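Reviewers of the previous submission asked for a worked example of the structure-prediction workflow described in the proposal, so we include one complete record here. The input consisted solely of the amino acid sequence. No template or homolog information was supplied to the procedure at any stage.
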Amino acid sequence: MAANQTEGAWDLGGRGLSNIDLIPHGPNRQEIKLGNKQSKLSDTEYYPSHTGIDFYHRYKEDIALLAEMGLKVFRTSISWSRIYPNGDEETPNQAGIDYYTDLFKTCRAHNMELLVTLAHFDIPMGIVEQYNGWKNRETINLYVKFAETCFEYFGAYVNYWIPFNEINVVLHSPFSGGGLTFDETENKEAVLYQAAHYMLVASARAVESCHRITPQAKIGCMIAGGSFYPYSCNPEDVWQSMNDERTNTFFVDVQAKGKYPYYMDAFFKAKGLNIDIESDKEILKETVDFVAFSYYASRTSIADISRVEKNEGNIIVSAKNPYLKMSDWGWVIDPLGLRITMNQIYERFEKPLFVVENGLGAKDVVEVDGTIQDDYRIDYMQQHFQAMYDGIKDGVPLLGYISWGIIDLVSASTGEMSKRYGMIYVDKDNAGNGTLERKKKKSVDWYKQVIQRNGIEIQLI
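From that input alone, the workflow returned the following structure tokens.
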């Protein structure tokens, strides 16, 4: 559960404005996420993050629900602007420290491990406006101060950390992924890859700080995962899929191997990009303990995408795969792709893996009797569990699995509540109306059995 999708309370407890607070639901959302359109708060727009699902006020009852299901690990994130409202204060916001301390204590009281993301599509707008965000090397120092504050205050409760959620998404959704905007005088690719590099340096420094401040903890990295299949055996399609895979995963090379892969030199030269990397080579050697990834779908690469029907359901546009079914929002459903992705990532990086996001965004219906019969979600998860189990039998070391999300939340991609991922229903619509009442779906009891039996021999019910 990401702070920006669940907490709400955007202007309470001393919290400052974050980039996510400027991304509305509706027709302007995509251009703002892409950094192509400047955003200012408007009385005519609805901003889903401002209220989320009110987790800020309801976390005790929500954690109790998760504990009732038998959840062993809870993934959440820390809102950077709740700790440092502007991003560059000398001391942290005590109300923010107190909130997360109590949240984490509540989880531990229910015997839940914590996996905490430091920056989950979240950067204070003070840093964006005063420092140009991740365009500026100084943002590394501001981020590291935030990270070290979190390690110092929360290290007694948290054993697993992730520096950046889906760090590779900054290339595809620059403002939501990293608070980046562009003007027409800038070379957009140069800005993106330099900002990505600064985020990688910040990640490496966070790894060093975590190992030094909380040596008992593990810290990993995370990408938006999903293999790129060639559309055909045409060598040009195979070459395209290889390059798409490289662009998507070179971040992990840096974070897990401590250096850029050889092909990025040629990539930068071919693009005419002069990225400031040389001075950071030593700090990049601070490598992660595990590799985490989200898995929702595979992608299909083709050299000339104009020749085929596109799959534009996700932010990464690819060719439509004729062999796979799609969700209500146009995301391909590919359980075997999870096994493929697990094997590819482990073969390449040889670090333990952690599936930290996987789930089905679907249109749930509350029946007349008040039940929510989400058998399609159970079927989706059952198939993905089987694929994950097969990957483990292949020899891939898997630290754990986290469903996204256990409780309905605001969709990061569309800003909708109707795109429901949870096994616990939240009464709220796309315009923000509703009681916020929590209601168990059919999948809750099924998932409870999965946890009790560790996922083995669980059949569709």
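Residues 450 and 458 are 6 Å apart (CA to CA). We consider this example representative of the routine output the project will generate in years two and three.
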